[in-house]
Amino acid sequence: MSKENNIDRLFREGLSDFSATPPTHVWDAINAEIKSNRKQKMVLLLWKGSAAAAFIGVIILAGILLHTSNTESPKYLTNLQPDSGLIISENENKQTNETGATSISNTISTNKDVEQKESLYVHELQNQKENSNINKEIKTVAFKNSEEYTNSNLLSAQNNTQIKKEVLLKAISNKDVITHTETIDPSTVFFLQNSDMDNKRMADMIFGDSEDEEEIKKELFAAISVGGQIAPSYSYRDGNNNSAKNESGITKLTGGVNVNFKTSKRFRIETGLLYAQVGQKFSNSSYTPSNSVAFGLLEDNIQPAPSANSYQNSMGNIVPKSSSSGKMFDAAPSTDFEASRTISNMAFFRNSEVEIQQELEYIEIPFILKYDIINKGIALSVNGGVSTNVLVGNNAYNISNNTRNKIGMIEGINAVSYSASFGLGLRTPINSSFDFNVEPRFKYFINSITSSSEYEYKPYSLGLLIGVNYKF
Amino acid sequence: MKNLEEIIKRCQKNNGKAQKQLYDCFSPWLYGVCLQYCKDKTEAEDHLQESFIKIFTNIKKYRFEGSFEGWMRRIVVNTIIETFRKKNPVYFVDSIEDIAKDAPEISEHTETINPKELLTFVEELPPKYKLVFNLYALEGYSHQEISDILGISIGTSKSNLSRARKILKDRLSIKKNDSIIA
C-alpha cells in the first residue's frame, strides 16, 4: 500500500485504540464454557487413567490365573480323604482289599464333561474307571461326607482289619475335589471401582475457587513429603516345584514410612522403610510325606511320625527353629508325636483341620519412581521401581483348631532379596499440610528367595497401600 | 504490560484467576474490534465470547514470539471471518469494472474525528463492504490475502473496497458540511 488512502488511514488511526466495555454476561458465559471444557477434559483424563489402571489390573489378574493354572497340579485329586482326616494310601489297596478294609484305587476325571455320580459305593468305584473319561490316577481319595463313616468304623477296621465295604460314600463331586483355590484379596481390587465417584464433587475439588487453586498447587508440588502407609496385602508365589500341593496365598498387613522427593513437576522418587510379610499356607493333605503316607491307617501301615523333611511344599523344608528342640510341634504337648502311633493321637490329627502357614517377614527399602498423569488438585500417578528386602523373620506355624503354634522355620531363605513393583497412586490433599494416598501396588520378587537349588520360590503380592503424607 | 507474560503463563496452566485478569485487560479493546466488524452489539458480544474461548483454549500454543495483542486480534478477526463465511457463502459478487470509477482519492478529510463516529460510519457499511474495508484498511491485508481468506476474486475485493471508501467518503462529506453549517 504505497499510496495509502486517506480514508483508510483516518479510520485505522481513529479506531486503533477504540475500546468499549463489554457487558458482564459475556465473561460469565466465557467462564462457564472454559470450566465446562476443563471438566470434560479432566473427566476424559480420569477415564483414560481408569482404563489404563483397569488394563493393568486385568493383566495382573490374568497373569495370576494363568500362572496358577500352570503351576498347580492338574485338576485331579491327589488326595481324597474323609473329613475325619483319614488318609488312605494307594499303596494300601492290595492290602486293604485282601483284608476287606475300605480301599480306593480309582481314577476319576475332573473333566467337567464327565458326569458326576451323586453317590458312589466303594465297591462300585472300580467300575467307574471304565465309564469315565479317565485322565489321571487318583492316589488317595478324600470324601467330604463322613456321616456314615464314623471313627468307630475306622477303629474297628484298624483293629480287626475289617472295614465294611458297604460304606456309603456320597457326593463325590467337583465340590469335593480338593483343588487349590486362590482367593483374591479385596485389597487387590483397584481403586478404579471408585472411578464412578461423583464427578461433580471431584471437579469441584479440582476446579475450586481460583484463589485456592494456586495454593493447592503449591502444596501439591511440595519438594519433600513424609508419611506412613498401611496395606492389606495378598501374597503368593511363583515357583517351579511340582511337589507343592494344596498351597494357597495368605493375606497379611504391610506398612511403614516413606519419604517422597519431588524431582520435577510430575516426577517423584519414593523411598522409606516398609515392613512386609509374604508367605503361603498349605493344608494337611499336602504335607504328607513324599511316599504319600502320612499316618498309617492300619496297624501294619503305621508310618513313622512326620519328620522335619516331610513337610513338602514349594517354599522349602521346614526345620525346627531350635536345634535343641528337634520337634516340629514345639508348642504341642511333647507326647503328641510320641503317641501319634496310637489310635487316639491319630484321631487328633484326623479330626483337626491342620494347616501349615509359612511366613517370611521383610524390611523393604523401596526405590520407586512416580509419574503424575494428572496433578490438578487430585493427582493420579503411575509408579514402578525396585526394592531391597532384608529378611527379619522366618517362621512356620501349625494352624489347628484355630490355634497357631510355631513349629519351625523355612530352610535356606536368603537374607536379602530383591523385588520389583509397579502400581497406581491416587493422591488428594486433606488440608494445607497433609495428603491422602491410595496406591494399589503389585510386587514381585525378581530372584528366588531360597538359596536351595531344589526350590525356586518367587513371592508376589498385591496390596492396597493407604496412607497420609505430611508436606514440608 | 509488566505482568503480561506471567499472566499468559498462568493462563497456559488453565489458571482461572489469570484468565479473568487477561479478559479484564483486553476485552474492551477486542470488543471494540468486534464492534468494527459487526452490525450490532449483540453480534459483537457473541464474537467476543467465542474469540476468548478460542484464546484460552489455544493459548498454550502461543510461544511468546511476536505481539500477543496481534495474536489475539488475529483470533478475533478470524473468528469473525469464519462466521461471516458460514452465513454468507456466496456474497461477494460485485464486478471488477466498478473499480476505476469508484476508486476515491480523498485528501481533504484529515481532521480528527471522534472514534465513536468513525465506528458508526463503519457499522453502517453493508457487511460485504465492511469486511473487505476492515481487512484491507485496518488489518493491513492485501487484496490477494483477502481473496484467499474470503474465497473471492481479487477484483471483487478491490471493488468492495472501493465501494466502501466511497460510502465512507460520502458520510464524511456530509458530516463536514453539517459542521460548516453548524
TrEMBL record, chain A:
Organism: Plebeiibacterium sediminum
Name of the protein in its database record: Outer membrane protein beta-barrel domain-containing protein
UniProt xrefs under SUPFAM superfamilies: OMPA-like
Domain Outer membrane protein beta-barrel: from-to ranges: 237-471
Lineage, highest ranks first: Bacteria, Pseudomonadati, Bacteroidota, Bacteroidia, Marinilabiliales
Keywords from the named record: Membrane, Transmembrane, Transmembrane helix
Record InterPro entries: Beta-barrel_OMP_2 (IPR025665), OMP/PagP_B-barrel (IPR011250)
Superkingdom per UniProt: Bacteria
Transmembrane residue ranges: 45-66
Automatic annotation (TrEMBL), chain B:
InterPro entries for the chain: RNA_pol_sigma-70-like, RNA_pol_sigma-70_dom, RNA_pol_sigma70_r2, RNA_pol_sigma70_r4_t2, RNA_pol_sigma_r2, RNA_pol_sigma_r3/r4-like, WH-like_DNA-bd_sf
Residue span(s) of domain RNA polymerase sigma factor 70 region 4 type: 117-167
Pfam families noted in UniProt: Sigma70_r2, Sigma70_r4_2
Keywords, comma-separated and alphabetical: Sigma factor, Transcription, Transcription regulation
One GO biological process term: DNA-templated transcription initiation
Domain RNA polymerase sigma-70 region: 22-88
SUPFAM superfamilies: Sigma2 domain of RNA polymerase sigma factors, Sigma3 and sigma4 domains of RNA polymerase sigma factors
GO molecular function: DNA binding; sigma factor activity
Family assignment from sequence similarity: Belongs to the sigma-70 factor family. ECF subfamily.
Protein's recorded name: Sigma-70 family RNA polymerase sigma factor
Provenance organism: Plebeiibacterium sediminum
Source organism phylogeny: Bacteria, Pseudomonadati, Bacteroidota, Bacteroidia, Marinilabiliales
